[in-house]
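Encode chain A's predicted structure.
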Amino acid sequence: MKPAAVLFAVFALGAATCSEASARSCTRVPQTIPDNRLVADNKKLTVPVGAIVFDVQVEAAEYTSSPGFPWLKPTSSDLAVLAPVRLCKSTGVSSLPVRVTAFRAKRRGSATLAASLAPQWRSVKLKPRPSSARITVR
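Encoded structure for chain A:
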């Protein structure tokens, strides 16, 4: 059986905050994200300065019985270009394990968002692969 492709997506939106979220200095994850801003693993995305980039990882069903979530939290290769954003707690419901992280486009440049495999997955025979996406800020 061939392992399924990594389900890794990046979304770019303006800040999605509410007054309650602002008071707590967090950004709310939007319920709907436009399809025209979806970038799959190993793709490129261009966003304006100030945009919030949402990274959504979904653990495929065939991996849910294995040792925990497959990927480490995504990181930015250049924090001056893409800086992490604190997200408000979500009450969303999903049938599969999901992790959402966000980064703010701080200045012009390029950065790679990458999520390595979690240590417990590195020795698993049929494992998902690490994921990454290249983000250009204009």
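The first strand starts at residue 7 and ends at 13.
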